[in-house]
Amino acid sequence: MTKNGFSDLTRRSFLKSATATATLLAAPGILRAETKELVVGGAASHTKWVEEIVAPAFEKKYGARIIFEGTKSLVNLEKMQSNKAKPYLSVVQMDDPVMIMAVNENLLTPITPALAPNVAKLRQGTVHMDGMWANYVQPWAGIAYNKSVSGVDSWTKLWDPAFKGRVVIPSLQNTEGMWTLFMAAHLATGKPLAEAQYEIDAAFAKLEELKPNLLNVYAVLTQSFNLLEQNEIAMLAGQFSSYTIPRVTEGATIDLAAPKEGIFAMPSGICLVKDGPNPELAAAYVNEMLGAELQSILAESTYSLPANTEVKGVDIAPAGIEVFGPDWAFVSKNRANWIDRFDRMMAI
Amino acid sequence: MSQFNGAAAAPGRRTDPFLLLAVPALCLLGMLFVLPIVFLLVKSFRDTTGNLSIATYVAFFSDPFMLTALRRTIVVAIETTLLTLLLGYPTAFALARARGFTQTIILIAMILPLSVGVIVKAFAWSIVFRTDGVINKTLLGLGIIDQPLRLLFTETALVIGATNIFLPFMVLPIYAVIRQTDPNLRSAAATLGAGPLFCFFRVTLPLTLPGIVAGAAFVFSMAVAMYVIPNLIIGERTQTLSMLIARSFLYLRNEQMGSTISTILLAIAAFIVIVSSVILKRLSGRQA
Q1: Between 20 and 30 A from A28 (CA), which of A78, A126, B88, B285?
Q2: DSSP states along chain B
Q3: CA B232 → CA A56, A129, B76, B136, distances in Å?
Q4: B interface mutation test: which of A223, A224, A228, A341 has the most B CBs within 10 A?
Q5: How confident is the model at residue B151 (pLDDT cuts 50, 70, 90)?
């Protein structure tokens, strides 16, 4: 049989190409190995201030690069669970009810004063479950509204028939979705929020009455926020100060109302991932996030309540309005059922 | 005889070296696609204790909420496919007929939007669909409607948005087939007395059917499985199967139901791909 030069050439070329491809694929990994990296998970709405404030300060001080993955708290939990055997996230910033689920699944390492000394300087109620996680700054949440609407002084405004098809509320998949649920319970029962939060059947019945006013239920905030700024919708329930007020100061024709029935403290927590890479850098990142220096900058730039007691002169929360923090253990225990019930109720 | 034909003419004597070129892609597909699908299939037939069970399939097909999402997913995919065909078929002809600069412009118009992210397009559509958007303003201006239509967060909006995104995947396969057809066949039919309609239905359409089938298979498969587009355009109140998959895995932490819905979605897409392959094979056999 005649030797087939073309197939010989193909074989050699194939091997050469394979080697070259392998080298090319490996190169970024080799280059990355020379620079320390810390992968931090967090909320998508945190991306701007993490990348503009936190990451540059940390990189300057520790010479390590921060890679921030912004998504939802429940997606962060899924990432931690799926990679439990070999975690790639070192630190995660997510909400308290999801933190409880992470603790139950043994995904976290406690933040001790030995690892992060600033944890000892936080105000009461911001360090949870023996240091499994801590709140750093807490934005407050109310109703974002277009300025064409006047007098959003009560949560009952969401139910006003004048706003048929002009209201959007968050899905219960999003932590801020809980605020409309709890306020519905309060409005339905007349009980204080601390008691009403357990009256979930009444809350769902009240939410059912809101359906004619709903244009949509969002899981992705940004698009609904655009619709609010464009006056396509009048009100966006459960919005938080860290996202809304910066847009107000940038000139958007919207505002954030603190209705008389109360506002809510967003449960922004930070935790160390168990067996996560670069544990010393991770502890340093958490320590910086809990420190007075960074918190005073973050509190002012994100319009949030600082957790560190050494931060002075920051007055963020509206005066005379109750700031409510719910029973997150109760939320965590029931959330999956509530999401299922809510989705079915809201489905078209 | 060429090297190609020689290798193909002697099966079993030696392995065609060209097959090696497919090895990296097959390995990648095997690891990232086939293996996870096998895991999903296995998981969908197990209960929470790991025993073999079809309980989640029974739960799915007896739940009106799930069946509504299933119906919507299929209807939206069919409507998207038909609309892309309606718009794509004449576009493919225009593209094949055009020459020089005009052809370049049409090609760029088809291909360039593929480089724009789906999220950007979805945001753009939300502006168009507003009560004071272009569509409502035009309809109001023409006196066709008295009140703005609600377009945002509707199935109609989803079909229009998806059509915009998937249109090139319909145009390009049809264009490729038109390029291969002999234009003299239409002239010959006309010479023999065939009118334009007869010529279209008896000559042009049968010749371009392979392109239509391939384009429809592409668009339907993508439309039935799309996640980001419905998430942004119709939101959480109008669930599709892919949204239910994410909801099951991420928010309800019900892996069995997530796997079951994934398997059902895969079965729908696979059915369409297999049927279109069979049709393509028959068509090419008939035209050979």
Answers
A1: A78
A2: --HHHHHHHSTTTS--GGGGGGHHHHHHHIIIIIHHHHHHHHHHTB-TTS-B--HHHHHHHT-HHHHHHHHHHHHHHHHHHHHHHHHHHHHHHHHHH--HHHHHHHHHHHHGGGGS-HHHHHHHHHHHTSTTSHHHHHHHHTTS-SS----TTSHHHHHHHHHHHHHHHHHHHHHHHHHHS-THHHHHHHHTT--HHHHIIIIIHHHHHHHHHHHHHHHHHHHHH--HHHHHHT-TTS--HHHHHHIIIIIS--HHHHHHHHHHHHHHHHHHHHHHHHHHHHHHHHH-
A3: 32, 37, 15, 20
A4: A223
A5: confident
Which of A23-27, A44-48, B65-69 holds the top average pLDDT? B65-69
Identify the band that residue A45 occupies on the pLDDT scale cut at 50, 70 and 90.
confident
Domains assigned to chain A: 35-138+267-306 (3.40.190.10), 140-265+323-346 (3.40.190.10)
Cα B61 vs. chain centroid, distance in angstroms? 25
Q: Do B153 and A21 touch (CB under 8 A)?
A: no
Q: How confident is the model at residue B216 (pLDDT cuts 50, 70, 90)?
A: very high
A220 touching chain B per CB within 8 A: yes
Q: Which amino acid is at A95?
A: D
Q: What is the pLDDT of residues B242-279, one digit of tens each?
A: 999 998 988 888 889 999 999 999 999 889 888 888 88
Residue with tokens 């999903």: B40
> Would you state the structure tokens that stand for residue A24, as one six-digit string?
């090319």
Can you read off the two tokens belonging to residue A53? 């404030």
Residues of chain B with CATH 1.10.3720.10: 54-287
CB-based contact A215 B21, cutoff 8 Å: no
Q: How far is CA A345 from the centre of its chain?
A: 25
- The two structure tokens encoding residue A101: 């689920």
Contact between A137 and A231 under an 8 Å Cβ cutoff? The reply is no
The answer to whether A281 and A90 are in contact (CB under 8 A) is yes
Tokens coding A259: 């209705």
Q: Which residues of A touch B6 (CB under 8 A)?
A: none
Q: Which CATH number fits domain B54-287: 3.40.50.2000, 1.20.1420.30, 1.10.3720.10, 3.20.20.10?
A: 1.10.3720.10
Chain-chain contact of A11 with B249 (C-beta, under 8 angstroms):
no
Q: Quick check: B230 and B72 in contact, CB under 8 A? A: no
The answer to whether the CB atoms of B236 and A226 lie below 8 A apart is: no
Chain A residues with CB under 8 Å of B250 CB are 72, 74-75, 78, 173
Predicted confidence (pLDDT) per residue in A273-300, tens digit: 999 999 999 999 999 999 999 999 988 8
Query: Is it the case that residue A9 has pLDDT exceeding 90?
Result: no
Give the pair of three-digit tokens for residue A218.
């969002």
Q: Kindly provide the ipTM of the predicted complex, given to two decimals.
A: 0.76
What's the rounded Cα separation, in Å, for the pair B13 and A340?
60
Question: Nearest CA of chain B to the CA of A23: how many Å?
Answer: 15
Which of B131, B237, B249 is the closest to A232 by Cβ? B131
What token pair was written down for B8?
């193909």
Interchain CB contact of A71 with B (< 8 Å):
no
The single residue listed with the structure tokens 């923090």 is A325
**Interhelix angle for B64-97 vs B100-111, to 10°?**
160
* Residue B65 at interface with chain A, using a CB cutoff of 8 Å: yes
Query: Measured between CB atoms, does A10 come within 8 Å of chain B?
Result: yes
